[in-house]
Amino acid sequence: MDNTQFWLYLLVMAGSTYLIRAIPFSLVKKKIKNRFIRSFLYYIPFAVLAAMTLPSALFATDTVIGAAVGIGVAVVLALFDKGLTLVALAASAAVFVTELLLGLIR
Question: DSSP state, 4?
Fold first, then answer.
């Protein structure tokens, strides 16, 4: 890829990223009062994050079983309002132990 092509791609990417953020600000002038739309906009970041993270988490380990156990531990701890560090460490430990046990069984 030559420099001209790179700068063209970069310009298109920057323009499209900017427009996605700038258009809603220019179109919506007043505060959104509709409860449904406000609720929808509140949960969008969580839904997008889950959609991006879950497939990667399932295939980041040697087996899907280990990944499922780690995700399960993380979900349970998160439901009990534990901190992010504890959730991440416990999920990682659960995956490690599961993978270790599955390696011993094989």
Answer: H
Highest mean pLDDT among 16-30, 46-60, 72-86: 72-86
- Cα–Cα distances (Å) from 23 to 17, 61, 83, in that order, read 10, 40, 36
DSSP string covering 19-57, please?
HHHHHHHHH--S----HHHHHHHHHHHHHHHHHHHHHHH
Contacts of 4 (CB under 8 A, 6+ apart): none
Mean of the pLDDT values across residues 30-47?
88
Please say whether the beta carbons of 42 and 70 come within 8 A: no
Q: For 92-106, write each residue's pLDDT tens digit.
A: 999 999 999 998 776
pLDDT for 92 equals 95
